Structure to design on (127 residues):
């Protein structure tokens, strides 16, 4: 009887652990990607032109100046972003790649001008 009870408790705990793991890898984050002028703590980050944004080598966005779009990234942890500033023909003139981690605490607004300007903070909470 005692062995059976321990086995049932162990299976319930295992089920809880697996559920938490699956939740974390499957959690979706909606991120608003803005290519608009952004002011933070007295510093203004200005738009550098139309951009192509690629997340994790699979989600592509093309943003004109002063526009925004939405992307859904799946999973906690590390994600990769590549931003290319485009000329009039759509060719990349400037490119930057970064990795960032999502935990749900940093915010849901990604500022392309802040990222291109080299700011460490380019993901914010919406105001």
């Amino acid at each position: 009887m005692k062995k059976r009870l321990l086995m049932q408790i162990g299976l319930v705990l295992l089920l809880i652990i697996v559920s938490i793991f699956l939740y974390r890898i499957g959690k979706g984050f909606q991120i608003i990607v803005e290519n608009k002028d952004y002011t933070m703590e007295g510093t203004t980050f200005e738009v550098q032109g139309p951009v192509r944004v690629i997340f994790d080598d699979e989600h592509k966005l093309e943003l004109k100046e002063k526009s925004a779009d939405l992307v859904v990234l799946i999973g906690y942890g590390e994600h990769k972003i590549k931003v290319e500033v485009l000329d009039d023909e759509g060719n990349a003139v400037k490119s930057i790649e970064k990795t960032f981690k999502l935990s749900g605490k940093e915010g849901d607004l990604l500022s392309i001008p802040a990222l291109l300007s080299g700011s460490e903070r380019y993901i914010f909470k919406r105001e």
